[in-house]
Structure formats: C-alpha cells, structure tokens
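Exercise 7. Predict the joint structure of the components listed below.
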Amino acid sequence: MAPATTAVPPAPPGTPFAIRMREVTVRYPNGVVALDRISLDIEAGEMVSVVGLSGSGKSSLIRTINALVPVTSGELEVGGHRIDGARGRELRAVRGQIGMIFQGFNLAKRTTVLNNVLVGRLSHAPWWRTMLGAYTAADRRLAFEALDRVEILPKAYQRAADLSGGQAQRVAIARALTQEPRLVLADEPVASLDPPTAHAVMGDLRRINQDLGITVLTNLHLLDLARRYGTRLIGLRAGRIVYDGDAASADDAVFEEIYGRSIGAQDVLEK
Ligand SMILES: Nc1ncnc2c1ncn2[C@@H]1O[C@H](COP(=O)(O)OP(=O)(O)OP(=O)(O)O)[C@@H](O)[C@H]1O
Ligand SMILES: [Mg+2]
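Solution:
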C-alpha cells in the first residue's frame, strides 16, 4: 500500500486534535451501513454534542474516529494523521492520544482508583515497563492531578468496586486525562446517572475542554444536555448528518427534525 498522504501536517505535540472526514462510509461485515458518506470538519478545541435516534450511527462515528472500526470508503484524518488505510502501529499511536469515555465506565473493579487511572499512562510507556507494571514518578503525578481535576482525589486508594456510578465515571475521565489526550470521545457518558451526577460529569467534560483546550466529542441522547454542554450540535439520522450548527440555539423543532418525531419526556434529563 502507498504511504498515506495527509492534507494537513500532523498536529505538533500537545496541541488538540482536529477531525476531518470526507465522504466517509462505514459498512459492517453484515452489510449494515452505519455511516453514509459523512463529511465533517471538527476544529481543534471544539466541544461537540452528537445526537440521533438509537441506531443512527453515533457509536459508530466514535469508533471510526478512534480507528476501532475501519473506514469502508472516504477519507478520515485525526490530528492530521490519515486513519483510512493506516496500519496497526500508526493507528495505535493515534489511538494512544485519544481518551475514551463509555457509558459503562470500563474500570477494573478489584483494584484501586489510582491503579485504574495509572492505566492511562500505558499507551506512553515502553512495552517492558508495562510488563513490569512500573510507573514513573511523573506518571503518578499526572494520575493524582487528573483525580484532583475531577474532584475525586480522596478516593485514590479505594477499590473501584466501591464507587458510585458518578464517581466511577469521574475516575474513567481521570484515566483518560492521565493519557494526556489530544481528543476525548465520550459515548453516552451519563446514560446511567441521576440528574445531579449527570450534570457533574458533563461539567467535568466541559472543564477539560475549556481549561485544557482538548477537543471533546460527546454522544448524548438527552437533548437538554446536548444543548447546554456542547457549543456545536451534530444530528445524525440513518448514518447521515441531518443537522450541524450552534448547540445553544437548537430548539425542539431542530431536534424533531433530527429525530423525525416529536420530543417527549424521555428525551430530556430535566422533565
Ligand atoms: N459491530 C457491528 N456489526 C454490525 N452492525 C452494527 C455493529 N455495530 C452497530 N451496528 C449497526 O450499525 C447501526 C448504527 O449503530 P450504532 O451503534 O452506531 O448506533 P447508535 O446511534 O450508537 O445507537 P444507540 O443510541 O442505540 O447507542 C445500527 O443499525 C446497528 O445495528
Ligand atoms: Mg451508541
């Protein structure tokens, strides 16, 4: 395969990632087209909410940007790195700089909060050090800073199994931060949380965006959260972008257009 060409040079160290998609289609092996010729530019440092009905392609979009799902056709660049057509080592290097946040937190329950957060350093460590499980003083400082940033430092030596859902999600955010990510992708990060906790977690994501300048893209099914915490709103329907605009000014009519149905109590956090 010819070396991948990039339209823009790779982002310099430490700067947030931009995302560039041109006519990106993702077809799963079973024939389902999850993304249908998506063209999209997300600037470095943006805070984007993605909404759409179940099955509209939100998770597929995140998994494609993170190179977990291959691009079937079209061009995808993340932080100036060409993702479509790239190979394992290159993809791992880009993926190591992308923090992922999931609905289910994905923590190792039997070990401490601190150990869970230190895992974020593994993508930066040489393989022999990850085998030894030996972290440097700098790794530990990053982990403590991240725990402090999401206000969960006092829990550092507690077992992850003993956390509430909101605390677990904040630990997952701290783990992503310890990676020193240049992009954070969050897939329904507050779907299983009560309203005050959901606001706290979304507030953390917003602070990461505003204070650290990291590009953040969050899939949400609660429209009031999408409007309040995103600066830009992208609406997906059947794998296509049907809305792309300012989040704050998106009213119910915009959401009804995206969803193709009227908006009900199940679509908002604050009933
Ligand atoms: N691994 C897969 N293999 C085959 N089809 C898949 C796979 N993952 C998702 N799909 C299909 O792709 C389409 C988009 O799914 P996706 O999970 O991206 O939607 P979503 O918007 O995240 O939905 P939800 O709100 O339910 O999480 C759906 O039709 C789904 O069934
Ligand atoms: Mg999903």
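Discussion. The longest strand covers residues 33-42.
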